UniProtKB/TrEMBL annotation:
Transmembrane segments: 23-45, 57-75, 95-121, 157-176
Residue ranges of domain Histidine kinase in the record: 211-416
Native source species: Paenirhodobacter huangdaonensis
Name of the protein in its database record: histidine kinase
Pfam families associated with the record: HATPase_c
Keywords attached to this entry: ATP-binding, Cell membrane, Kinase, Membrane, Nucleotide-binding, Phosphoprotein, Transferase, Transmembrane, Transmembrane helix
A cellular-component GO term for this protein: plasma membrane
Enzyme class, UniProt record, top EC level: transferase
Localization per record: Cell membrane
Superkingdom in the source lineage: Bacteria
Catalyzed reaction equations: ATP + protein L-histidine = ADP + protein N-phospho-L-histidine
Membrane topology (UniProt): Multi-pass membrane protein
CDD domains, per the entry: HisKA
One of the record's GO molecular function terms: phosphorelay sensor kinase activity
Length: 422
């Protein structure tokens, strides 16, 4: 009986993690605030000699400590995410506790009154606007209430209240606009990632379709020539007809194999990860595969002595390499040659032919779609698809004309840059 592999551990929900981290951040901020309040109270009483109701203030601080301990204990790594209204309620408690401490230590004239802006900013930053609005209103109401407490003669508190309203409104508006801009930017980035993924899929399908079209050309040509001869000259005699039918059936089977192999390659492109391979064996395999599947003469490969470098490949790279060979063979049949070399950073594969070379339009816009030397409409996608397939692997493609024909240079980053992998 085949053992059932264990199920993969589920990935954590990013929103859940973010909500949990936000709740922990509030707990940490609250500990800092409690410690700061204690230090400020001791400094005012011991150094400045200000008479404060330390017993009542200690009671409020003790309530804050107990509240923060309960909050910390309620946060479980795998527990449910903390909703907005809970965050807002905690910030409301912080606002009321801070207001009580300010009321016991000077009211609106206490310079620490501006700290009531902190819960407002946290609410606007972390909660939905509808949840943050009550905290904004509560903080302003608390400051207004502090201005109603008795103040020393000649020291009005109305200006402090107006300044707090102005500061809280401007900062809240700015934070909301900033959140909206960040959300729009995140949505735009996500859309770009989605479009890039769709473009990668189209590139892969285009390469597979291009390779399949080249492979199908030979068997379909054989079938077309045989059928044209029959249509023009009539059916041959029995021995010749049987041999021709056997050859045609073989060519149809070959077409089916080509289509099946293409579909399997499309499945690998969706489900298989990229693989690390040695450069020389991989390029020799690609050249042999092209020669076998296209019924062409082998392409000689000259290897410059050097380390057995490695690079990253994927199914679409195979399709891109075969597509380049198809295009080069179509431009200059039977003249292809390849070289492989290794630099300190890259693996370099160069393909040359003895044909007419690239036209100026292709060299001016290398890899641009629908730019080719062919007069036929719709041509010129091969180099474009190949360039994009290489870009997925961090590679690049360079086109030029040499002394005897076209030159295609493919550069792929090495994975063994720190040493020789013999």
């Amino acid at each position: 009986m085949t053992p059932v592999p264990p199920a993969a551990a589920p990935r954590p929900d990013p929103d859940h993690v973010a909500a949990h981290d936000t709740a922990w951040l509030l707990v940490q901020i609250r500990w800092v605030a409690i410690a700061s309040q204690f230090a400020a109270t001791v400094y005012a009483a011991q150094v400045l000699g200000i008479d404060l109701p330390r017993g009542q203030m200690a009671t409020v601080s003790a309530l804050l400590v107990a509240f923060n301990l309960l909050t910390a204990l309620s946060l479980r790594p795998k527990g449910p995410p903390v909703p907005d209204w809970v965050i807002a309620a905690q910030l409301g408690f912080d606002t009321l506790a801070g207001t009580m401490l300010l009321a016991l230590s000077g009211g609106a004239l206490n310079p620490f009154t501006l700290l009531l802006l902190v819960p407002v900013m946290l609410a606007v930053s972390l909660c939905a606007p509808a949840r943050a609005l009550p905290i904004y209103l509560l903080a302003n109401a608390c400051v207004w209430g502090l201005t109603l407490l008795p103040a020393p003669p000649g020291r009005g508190t109305g200006a402090i209240f107006l300044a707090f309203i102005l500061a809280s409104t401007i900062l809240s508006w700015f934070t909301l606009r900033l959140r909206a801009n960040l959300a729009a930017r995140a949505a735009a980035i996500e859309a770009l990632h989605r479009e890039r993924a769709e473009a990668d899929q189209l590139v892969g399908l285009g390469l597979l379709a291009s390779g399949m079209a080249h492979e199908l050309g030979t068997p379909l040509t054989t079938l077309a020539v045989t059928l044209d001869d029959w249509a023009e000259l009539g059916l041959p005699d029995e021995p010749g007809r049987s041999a021709a039918l056997s050859a045609m059936i073989a060519e149809v089977k070959r077409c089916r194999e080509i289509v099946s192999r293409t579909l399997r390659a499309a499945g690998r492109e969706r489900f298989e990860a990229a693989a690390e391979v040695r450069a020389e064996p991989e390029f020799r395999r690609l050249l042999a595969l092209w020669s076998m599947t296209r019924d062409r003469s082998p392409v000689p490969l000259a290897v410059t002595p050097g380390p057995q470098a490695r690079f990253l490949t994927e199914p679409m790279f195979e399709a891109a390499a075969l597509n380049l060979l198809d295009n080069a063979e179509a431009a200059a049949p039977g003249t292809l040659a390849a070289t492989l070399s290794v630099t300190a950073e890259d693996v370099v594969f160069t393909l040359t032919d003895r044909g007419p070379g690239f036209p100026a339009a292709v060299l001016d816009h290398p890899g641009a779609p629908f730019v080719s030397g062919s007069p036929e409409a719709g041509r010129g996608l091969g180099l474009f698809l190949t360039r994009n397939a290489l870009a997925r692997l961090g590679g690049r493609m360079e086109l030029s004309n040499g002394d005897r024909g076209a030159v295609i240079r493919i550069t792929l980053p090495r994975l063994d840059r720190d040493g020789d992998l013999a």
